[in-house]
Amino acid sequence: MGDMRIAVVGAAGRMGKALIQAVWSTPGVCLSGGVEREGSHALGQDLGEIAGVGHLGIPISDDPLTVFANTDGVLDFTAPQASLAFAELAAQARIAHIIGTTGWTEGQDEPLKAAARHARIVKSGNMSLGVNLLANLVRKAAAALDTDFDIEVLEMHHRHKVDAPSGTALLLGEAAAEGRTINLEEKSVRVRDGITGAREEGTIGFATLRGGSVIGEHSVIFAADGERIELAHKAEDRSLFAKGAVKAALWAFDKKPGYYSMADVLGLSD
User: Fold this and answer.
1) What is the pLDDT of residues 176-197, one digit of tens each?
2) Catalytic site includes residue 161
3) Catalytic member of 97, 161, 243, 247
4) How far apart (Å, rounded) are the C-alpha atoms in residues 22 and 250?
5) Does the annotation mark 157 as catalytic?
6) Residue 268: what pLDDT?
7) Average pLDDT, the chain
8) pTM for this entry
């Protein structure tokens, strides 16, 4: 069996370039195509040159159908609506679709489960090993600690990030909610302003910071009277997310169609 062919959608973006670099530098995979939206300045440019890895002879296209028909997997860190459209094409092509897209609204990703009947979809709010290990620890801590311990999720990202809380913060909040066997949507507190009253027992709070060039910092705080436990992760290089996505693609290559997470990829699913 030859190298796994991987295409990158949103190829000209910051994450797109990091994904191209990660595929180019990883044994066992090769770049097969790149996709950008219609009208993008990057259309027709060489996939390797735009990412700084040299000429590859692969022009960036606005025709995902053709690209998907000639690849084994797709790496996708775009936007929810685009990812849904790409998932339909991945199902038609019966390939692996690795989704690191964030900013999903409640229930918006439900169509992905239908696409996963034919595609191997791996979706995660964060593709790094460290964050997924952190989520596993958060789940176990939340299960072990009773509601005397309040749970707060704190995150900071660069000034250009458009969604809040981050996908990673929500991933960690979901882990805490699973540990507590509660529904995150019913128990999360996203905004505090003015006279809010005392903190409601059993809720999970989120705090969001934005500024500078911070790639991603997340902490989950378990706070009780007289003591506090903090579990944290700091991302110092965007490439760690890209490397995680390539790892997910290689893992999904020979799997049955289905809807998977990074916990499955990393063997952290209980």
Assistant:
1) 999 999 999 999 999 999 999 9
2) yes
3) 161
4) 12
5) yes
6) 82
7) 95
8) 0.82
